[in-house]
Amino acid sequence: MQDVKYTRPASIQEAIRLLQEGGPTARILAGGTDIIVMARERRRDTSVFVDIKAIPETMGINFDAASGLTLGAATPLYQIYRNETVARIYPCLVDSASLIGGTAIQGRATFGGNLANAGPAADSIPSLIVMECVANIVGPNGQRQVKAEDFCTAPGRNLLEAGEFIVSLHFPTPAANSGARFLRFIPRNEMDIAVVNSATNLTLDGNTVTAARISIGAVAPKPLFVLEAGAALIGKPLTDETIAAAANAARDAATPIDDMRGSIRQRKHLAYVLTERTIRDAARRARGEAAQEH
Ligand SMILES: Cc1cc2nc3c(=O)[nH]c(=O)nc-3n(C[C@H](O)[C@H](O)[C@H](O)COP(=O)(O)OP(=O)(O)OC[C@H]3O[C@@H](n4cnc5c(N)ncnc54)[C@H](O)[C@@H]3O)c2cc1C
């Protein structure tokens, strides 16, 4: 482990000052489940941790039907999936939060850290993308908002500038008759990195799809927002044919690598299968039914 100074600012302004003073080796610490491992293994030069959990704006869950859901960026995952409002209105976020790591990891890990870490296989990012998440970012030049789909730039890279961090994540209230689902494939039941993951959020008018957002992960340098897959559904009846067209679009958008977890062929196939399943489950939820266990 490197010799690292620990700081715990109580305000946004103090955190920005500490990040600026610390320069490029000052690191935000949220749950620490990624950054402490990386600092210990010297994969990230780290001189100072800026622990943001004492900043009130980074913690907590607030929902209001008019404005939507705001999650403090450092809110631990277990608080998200145990929250009744989130479970009822945003079950797709619970799908992600409840399968990242295991119980111990979920006690510390955060959506803000998962997003900022920008892993291609990150298990929250497809859900954040399809639920129209906007990251509220603060820094030396004030505040700005960035859509989840625009946030990651490359493996482990995001568009945060020096001194910036995510304070909170905002989600609009889902439309009536909408439903969303996240699924991933891993070779064992838990504690593994996704071979492929997928999320779908769609809105139905009868059996016609009026809105659809589809995202897949672990098949490209960053999680993908596949516009073509959503377009294959929008304005059309939800049938085996339109679902297959959307799943095909997801498979076509995937540009995976071969590695020890899966081959290109398997990953492209999984992009199809998981997208098909998340569409069917999202439609079930849109109709007020339960999603299937897979
Ligand atoms: C055993 C184990 C199992 C895991 N399983 C999974 C899994 O199944 N799926 C999965 O996706 N991940 C998994 N992970 C990775 C990790 O737990 C998640 O990525 C987690 O969501 C990271 O959140 P954190 O709060 O712990 O991030 P941290 O480690 O605190 O931070 C991660 C990175 O983001 C930066 N950061 C954190 N918060 C902010 C912020 N608000 N603004 C700006 N930058 C910030 C940090 O500086 C750091 O670079 C696992 C990790 C372990 C150790």
Structure description:
The chain is α+β, with helices and mostly antiparallel strands. The protein folds into 3 domains: 5-51, Uridine Diphospho-n-acetylenolpyruvylglucosamine Reductase, domain 2, CATH 3.30.43.10; 56-171, Uridine Diphospho-n-acetylenolpyruvylglucosamine Reductase, domain 3 (2-Layer Sandwich); 178-285, 2-Layer Sandwich (Enolase-like, domain 1), CATH 3.30.390. The chain contains 12 helices and 14 strands. It has helices at 12-22, 35-40, 77-81, 84-89, 91-97, 103-106, 111-117, 125-130, 148-151, 227-231, 240-253, 264-286; strands at residues 5-7, 26-29, 48-51, 61-64, 68-72, 134-139, 142-147, 152-154, 157-158, 165-171, 178-185, 196-205, 208-217, 224-225. The strands form 4 sheets. The chain has a 5-stranded antiparallel beta sheet. Strands 11-12-13-14 form a 4-stranded antiparallel beta sheet. It has a 3-stranded parallel beta sheet with strand order 1-3-2, with helices on one face. It is globular. The mean pLDDT is 96. Flavin-adenine dinucleotide is lined by residues 27-35, 37, 52, 73-74, 100-101, 105, 108-110, 112-114, 116-117, 122-123, 160, 165-166, 191.
